[in-house]
Design goal:
With about 150 residues, the protein is of the alpha/beta class. It has one domain: Mannitol-specific EII, Chain A. It is about 40% helix and about 20% strand. It contains 5 helices and 6 strands; from the N terminus they run βααβββββααα.
């Protein structure tokens, strides 16, 4: 699966400014709203926060996958954000999060949404991929990393 088909250059921020989990989620949703597949930014934001209440999406290793399935979306979108200083995301390993992927999907995209999450999880298990994403300078580099990972 080529994850780049769900990303766009204007859905990436290499210098997130948020200091808190809530601020970073707001930043990522704002970024996501650059996509024509977002019907309602506020509804998407509410859905992501609602999902985050269930259990943290900070999976460890400095990575988080905030996500939501909502009727605010016309298709699947992935926004990428990076925080050099790291954000307390209440991650499972209690470490700051530096790499964030906001995954937004329509309510009926259950299988596709899970496939995207599984693929991203697999890619982020690799320390080499995480290091490459921390060094990436362009959207093209990020998409290449996501698509070329074995």
């Amino acid at each position: 699966m080529k994850l780049s088909k769900f990303c766009e250059e204007d859905l990436m921020n290499f210098d997130l400014q948020g200091q808190t989990k809530a601020d970073v989620i707001k930043e990522l949703v704002e970024l996501t709203s650059n996509s024509s597949l977002v019907r309602d930014r506020e509804e998407l934001l509410a859905a992501v926060f609602e999902r985050e209440k269930l259990v943290t999406t900070g999976v460890g290793y400095g990575v988080a996958f905030p996500h939501a399935k909502t009727r605010a979306m016309k298709g699947i979108v992935i926004a990428f954000g990076r925080s050099e200083v790291g954000v307390d995301f209440e991650a499972m390993d209690k470490k700051p999060v530096h790499l964030l992927f906001l995954i937004a999907a329509p309510e009926d995209a259950i299988g596709a949404h899970l496939n995207v999450m599984a693929r991203l999880s697999y890619i982020m298990k690799s320390e080499k991929n995480r290091e490459r994403l921390m060094r990436a300078k362009t959207a093209g580099e990020v998409m290449l990393i996501l698509d070329s990972a074995p």
